[in-house]
From TrEMBL:
GO function terms (MF aspect): ATP binding; D-alanine-D-alanine ligase activity; metal ion binding
Cofactor annotation: Mn(2+); Mg(2+)
Gene3D superfamilies: 3.40.50.20, ATP-grasp fold, A domain (3.30.1490.20), ATP-grasp fold, B domain (3.30.470.20)
Native source species: Polaromonas eurypsychrophila
Name recorded for this polypeptide: D-alanine--D-alanine ligase
Gene assigned in the entry: ddlB
Sequence positions that bind Mg(2+) 1: D264, E278
Length: 325
């Protein structure tokens, strides 16, 4: 039987946190908090950057809606703390979260499962020199995408157009992460596809096609401008949307993700082949965020989406979604 608002008990919406995505997380969390309260859930804001996380158990919280993004929220650390306290939480478990935050590890697993992702070169801080940096375009071509291996929201991402930009882009990314990911640039359509559920019950929501100013879908254009276009229905050729949905479901399942997530994909303009870029296991829930937009196209309101995600709150050792409380 589907859980009703009183059945959730006292719910903490985890927001803010200590990552570079703190401001986005605050926006996400406030939206989720308001939505849950509007549906009668006893929900409270909780910022792990300002409070000891052990207060969750001391104050009798029974579930957590994780609206944290990036490190210390989406990387398995908070999930591990909640596992130790026995407090059910939304989204993927400890291992799936820690794998998914790492773009290189994610790529390796996808490739091992036969899933397409752009070619890449990993540069580890202190283990590469200028000659190796300047040789990256020789292997991957130009433009090349340079980004920290474990950041989100396009933070630290640079599209390098020529050799002269390589050193600065790598240096910028290295300030945010010990590992720098250099990735083949796929020219074509940028799309994203949310997933709800777990295992065989997981389902893909409508694909969104993203049209950013000059093709630059950066941090500013994601959250703070209204010039980026989000097309849903996506308007892709017949069959492409269904193929992308099938691919992202496989990519989501092979990582062991649960509850919800969102996968970003590039479609090569010439071959129409889709390439997986990354997965977000705690997607944004702001006014500009894509999971609520896709859900709305599927007939799911923001409030119902928040409730559906909260119903899947779980612990790693409880195999039944929503079974922990």
């Amino acid at each position: 039987m589907s859980l009703k608002a009183p059945d959730f008990g006292k719910v903490a919406v985890l927001l803010g946190g200590r990552s570079a995505e703190r401001e986005v997380s605050l926006m996400s969390g406030r939206g989720v908090l308001e939505a849950l309260r509007s549906r009668g859930v006893d929900a409270h804001a909780f910022d792990p950057a300002e409070r000891d996380i052990s207060d969750l158990r001391r104050e009798g919280f029974q579930r957590c809606f994780i609206a944290l993004h990036g490190r210390f929220g989406e990387d398995g650390t908070v999930q591990g703390a909640l596992e130790l306290m026995g407090i059910a939480y939304t989204g993927s478990g400890v291992m799936a979260s820690s794998i998914s935050i790492d773009k290189v590890t994610t790529k390796r697993i996808w490739l091992a499962d036969g899933l397409p992702t752009p070619k890449y070169i990993l540069l580890r801080r202190g283990a590469f020199d200028r000659k190796q940096v300047m040789a990256v375009p020789d292997d991957l071509g130009l433009p090349v995408i340079v980004k920290p291996a474990r950041e989100g929201s396009s933070i630290g991402v640079v599209k390098v157009e020529d050799y002269s930009g390589m050193a600065g882009a790598v240096e910028q990314a290295a300030q945010l992460d010990a590992d720098v990911l250099c990735e083949q640039f796929i020219r074509g359509d940028e799309v994203t596809c949310p997933v709800l559920g777990t295992g065989d019950n997981a389902r893909a929501l409508p694909v969104i096609r993203i049209v950013a100013p000059e093709g630059n879908y950066d941090y500013q254009n994601k959250y703070f401008t209204d010039t980026t276009q989000y097309l849903v229905p996506c308007g892709l050729p017949a069959g492409e949307e269904a193929a992308i949905q099938a691919m992202v479901l496989q990519a989501y399942r092979v990582l062991g993700c649960r509850g919800w997530g969102r996968l970003d994909v590039m479609i090569d303009a010439a071959s129409r082949k889709p390439y997986l870029l990354e997965i977000n296991t705690s997607p944004g829930m702001t006014s500009h965020s894509l999971v609520p937009m896709s859900a709305r196209a599927a007939g799911i309101s923001y409030e119902d989406l928040c409730l559906e995600v909260l119903r899947t709150a779980n612990l790693d050792h409880d195999p039944q979604p929503g079974g922990a409380a």
